[in-house]
Amino acid sequence: AQNPAVYATVGLIGSATPAGWDASTALEKDANDPHRWFLPTITLTAGELKFRANNNWDVSWGSSNFPAGTGLQGGPNIPATSGEYSVTFNDVTGEYFFKNLAPPTVYASVGIIGSATAKGWDESTPLKLANTNEPNNWVLTTYLQAGELKFRANNNWDVNWGGTDFPAGTGTRGGFNLQVTESSYYTIQFNDITGAYNFNKLNPVAYESVGLVGSATAGGWDNSTPMVKGADGHSWTLENAQLTSGEAKFRVNNNWEVNWGGTDFPAGVATPDGPNIPVAGGTYTISFNDVTREYQFEVTSGTTNNIVVLSPALPTADEPVTITYDAAQGVSGLRDASKVYMHSGVVLSGPVGTAWNNVVGNWGQDNGLGEMSPVPGESNKWQITLPSVREYYNLTGGVPAFRLGMVFRNAAGTQTGKSEKDGDIFVQLNPGDFVRFTAPTAAEIFGVSGQTLQLSAEASGVAGSISLEINEGNGYQPVAQLSNSKTINYQYTLGTATSLQVRVIAQLNEKTVTSEKGLTIILRKPNTVAALPAGLRSGINYHPTDPNKATLVLLAPKKEFVYVVGDFNNWQISDAYQMNQTPDGEYFWLEVNQLQTQKEYVYQYWVDGVIKIGDPYADKVADPFNDSNIPTSVYPTPVAYNRTQNGIAAVLQTGQQPYQWKFPKVAGKRPQKEDLVIYELLVRDFLGSHSYRDLADTLTYLKRLGVNAIELMPIMEFEGNESWGYNSTYLFAPDKYYGTKNDLKA
């Protein structure tokens, strides 16, 4: 049994203490243990200190570690950092701890730097927070070479930690370089308060081969494209990989026993047996690590074919770019065309997004907007130079642009040039370092007072710090902040503000990036819940005894609210045109009054503030993109409607006169099945005029051929004007490209 000395007093002395080296600051003895000492609070300055007994130098303890360590009798001075601390000390074990009473410093980032790391002494390799709720605990799995390293904060030398022990120990501010004794993969843990660190050496499985497989690759899902193994045995690369838009995964030994997938593109961390990685077409240098599971698709060229070529190959949104189109490639009706236009938009939703924004082009108009020039000396090649993507598409500063979407056309818009799959052509852009809002996606926000609105933003990589700010009219105020995070969220409560400016700021390495978004808030009333009046059905319900009103009914289960917006209210949202909701939540309905008899009104349903649609039961629609290209000889008086920002809308008209059939009852009888001679007829191709009226005049010709039945290919409203009709959009509305609904009946 030990018989340790019992000291009358133990105190702290040194340049870091209030009394300096002249006198000890006494600690208090634990009433239950004569060898445990504590001090509830002491203010230290940057300097050195030691523990000593009985206020003299006969017995003293020191160490090289702070704020925690084990003191040795006669040991070195303890380096101390300024601050307010509580102190504990055991004079038998020598263990001590200086607990900082001030809130711990939260660093934007903590990393490792040194000859043992991949980036050497030039730049820190960032660690990740072990838990977002613990901003002082850091972790990283990485490969280290035998060499030296230190921990440091914020990628600079103002705050750094070193140590003398490996693989575990306690780091001290400004301490010695840590000596990594063996090259290997390690999981590193570090606490920036206590300085405690641990390097856990891993023994990962070594794979013979790793490859890329999927619909985006040349081998499809059948054969992996092999990657090249790195010197560490676990990093893999694939250079100049030409990928098409599709999906991909990493897998081992060209089979499915071990594979990895992910949801992020172009970079992320894969999971075993994870989902397919979405891939945008392009030429890439691909890297993957089978230990850390980190992957990256680094674009070297934004296209995978020769249909469209960019110069520079991967432009940013802020530099000039020349777009060259080869009309002899892809699905093209523009070979040997005399004039070519580019109809295009910018993709803001992400590197694999397909939705166009800020579209430039007037389809069917020969007005110079998007007009291309022939490339001298090269047949079927056309080009256009943009001053920059941001300027050409009028893109707000700070908003990242990921892709361009485009199709090509002749001056009249009757011939097109598209991808090899007869679709839109997409080319990649270099978005650079960015931060952007991911929610809400709309600029108009509908809600009731007291309802919460989620604001979400993401950075292009893990940000040292990322913060959200809100301006309700009195300047920006911070509302949320995180360290070492790629995303940030905040729940905003709707009140009385009708407009809002939101801003997100992220620190990406040494660069600060910012994005702002303006929101218009429309405070709506709660839905009026009312049963659907008897006798009403989905669509337009006309009132035979009152031609000045119509009741509109929309089936919209699981939707929150619907407005009716149209010519009758000057396309303005108002409480008077918010639709009633049935008690079961399935239907919305509204009676529209003060309509002018026989006047055509164009209208839409605006659902949940984000969906704008015409009435699916309407027998006539207005198409702002295509109606103007229908000859007046076929459809003489289309209703005026040019709201391209809203899209296709429905048309209602009260007081319509019933059609007077020439033969109210069917004359003759249907032929027997065995006697049928059916002619399948596409109005567009059968007659140059594509007119119902002219078709009626040719019935005798068909009869002379022996035809006794006609099967019309789809005639309901379809996308565009020229189609086989199988891309139908409004099933109860005859397409106006063939004539009026009464022409069809004639």
UniProtKB/TrEMBL annotation:
- Give an example GO cellular component term for this record: outer membrane
Lineage top rank: taxon: Bacteria
Check the record and name the InterPro entries matching this protein.
GH, Ig-like_fold, Ig_E-set
Keyword Metal-binding recorded: no
Q: Which UniProt keywords apply?
A: Carbohydrate metabolism
**Molecular function (GO) terms listed?**
starch binding
Please report the name of this protein according to its UniProt entry: 1,4-alpha-glucan (Glycogen) branching enzyme, GH-13-type
Q: Which organism is it from?
A: uncultured Adhaeribacter sp
